[in-house]
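Narrative summary of target 7.
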Amino acid sequence: MTYSEELLPGTQRALLHRIATAQAEGRTPSVVAAVQRQGRIVWSGSRSCVDGHAPDADTQFRIGSLTKTFTAVLVLRLRDEGLLDLDDPLEKHLPGTAVGGVTVLQLLAHSAGLGAESPAPWWERTSGTLRPELADVLGEQTRMHPPGRRHHYSNPGYTLLGALIEAVRGASWADVLQREILEPLGMSRTSTQPQAPHAGGWAVHPWADALLPEPPEDLGLMAPAGQLWSTAADLLRFASFLSEGDDRVLGAASVAEMRVPSAPSESGDWQGGYGLGLQLVRQDGRTLVGHTGSLPGFLAALWLSTEDDVAAVVLTNATSGLFVGTVAADLVGIVAEAEPRIPEPWRPLPEVDAELLALTGPWYWGTRANILRLTADRGLELQVLQGSGRGARFVAQPDGVWIGLDGYYAGETLRIVKAADGSVTHLDLGSFVFTREPYDPASVVPGGVDPEGWRGLGA
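Modeled conformation, tokenized:
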């Protein structure tokens, strides 16, 4: 049995109502939004203050700091090709800056301790020609915090990453972006300069219904931090890539790595974090990954829920007033809650490995009961039988051990320990011993097991 890929009329109306309310209450000249489910655009809509002149999903808007995610993808490509390591100091590949000791990873995660902005004049409203050298972007006070200690958002940090890409590739950031991301993903409506049809940027007076045009400045060296123009349709293509990966650009494992928190959250912010070029937020019980962006005259947001396989983009042409991140998150929530994802049908394994099957079932860490399951991808999954605990998934390695993929045991080694006759005696997980019975005297339990065994209160 299948279900219609189209959204139900009630869901479509709820989406339209949300952006209509946002445009009216946010007092923005126009807003366009689109939603994708299971890799397919299932809804788009827009509102405008000009009758008969609303944008659509193919209209370009400036996307500001959403550009950073593209820059991060280019850096991860260099890593995957073996041209750099994320723990490399910047100086190794881009000598001569005043901050060469910070690492590539710290720059990606905004934990290098660099300033949030470049020195005056206000870079977002001035030409990039005023900052022709990296020293002009960094200024004299290059360090705000010790590297690696906290998340401190830095536009100059992503400028350095753009320069790093150019140094390693021997080509401009814009050319590398076009060749390595935009063309393979078919993002023909994403560019460093506006291409018609595109929206014009506006400022709305905070206390009057009046408009002021915003100048679309070229950011120069700071382009890798916020230069791009794009459309709702193109950004949803990018969302599909951020969900599944694409071997022509970046594999699924590396894209998943981008979605993992890589820096300490700001103090008190327990609902958000930052990965490698991706913002992470928790809202209404779901995790959203993506990025928001702003430049004078424009606001943008892309959020993706991998669990629901739903993504949303919201673009508007106002400097402030509309909380695009909240609206995009609401659009994801509307679809995910009104029309929950239909799970794939259960299917048995195509074949059963008897040796792996014999490992399944209960195992005990001391007295804590766990269940070991064989998964459809021939992995192992450890689950605590009652309450919360240290569950994890494991993937087999060529040398016969298993490596944890997530949770407490991420990166830890699981070994299947056997006796001389080949029978399994216990599991060794990061030095913890798991036995078939609680403190099994027949297994190798560190510290030994009292030879008198279990006893009652009167013993």
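The CA atoms of residues 94 and 164 lie 6 Å apart.
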